[in-house]
Design a protein that fits this description.
By secondary structure, this protein is α+β, with helices and mostly antiparallel strands. The chain has a domain at 53-152: Trna Endonuclease, Chain: A, domain 1, CATH 3.40.1350. Helices cover 27% and strands 20% of the residues. It contains 4 helices and 8 strands. The chain has helices spanning 9-18, 22-27, 54-61, 106-125; strands at residues 68-69, 74-77, 80-82, 86-88, 95-99, 131-136, 142-148, 151-152. The strands form 2 sheets. The chain has a 6-stranded mixed β-sheet with strand order 1-4-5-6-7-8. Strands 2-3 form a two-stranded antiparallel sheet. The longest helix has 20 residues, at 106-125. The chain is globular and about 40 Å long.
């Protein structure tokens, strides 16, 4: 079950357009009804798969362990999949990391919301596996925020392999 109360407006908008059943759940909750623009703004095409962007490369450069880029794809439902940016293949349980910036650019925010919704769904579906959101803080240091079935933690987790 998707917890709409823990989602941002952008995440709810994306989910209602791309995940079957969410629009029905939204119609049952008057507080989430909104009128959107008649024609959505089109985002530019995403980069090619298999190539980390500058932010993802910067994150990897601060890690002291080997990470695999886009090594696994979760098929959440027909037509909807999620590929974490980095996988830390340690022991029996791999760790999945999504790297994001805090951008105010509407095009980037749209893609950001989509991947955050999918990240939360994966964390809820695969509760036995650790999922993290990686962001830079105000000082430019990377922080890892645990993502669980309850949502994204506001408190970063300290790990020895990230400096």
């Amino acid at each position: 079950m998707i917890d709409l109360d823990r989602m941002t407006r952008e995440e709810i908008d994306w989910a209602s357009q791309h995940i079957p059943g969410v629009s029905l759940m939204l119609s049952l909750r008057p507080s989430h009804r909104t009128k959107g623009p008649s024609e959505p703004e089109r985002a530019k095409p995403a980069k090619q798969r298999g190539e980390p962007n500058a932010l993802e490369l910067d994150f990897k450069s601060h890690c002291t362990v080997d990470l695999e880029y886009e090594a696994i794809t979760f098929h959440l439902m027909p037509g909807c999949s999620y590929t974490p940016d980095w996988v830390l293949p340690r022991g029996f349980t791999p760790t999945f990391i999504e790297v994001k910036s805090d951008s105010t650019n509407p095009t980037i925010k749209s893609r950001y919301a989509a991947s955050i919704v999918k990240l939360k769904i994966c964390a809820k579906t695969y509760e036995c596996m650790p999922f993290y959101l990686a962001r830079k803080d105000a000082e430019g240091k990377w922080k890892l925020y645990p993502v669980t079935s309850q949502g994204i933690s506001r408190k970063p987790r300290e790990v020895l392999w990230l400096n």
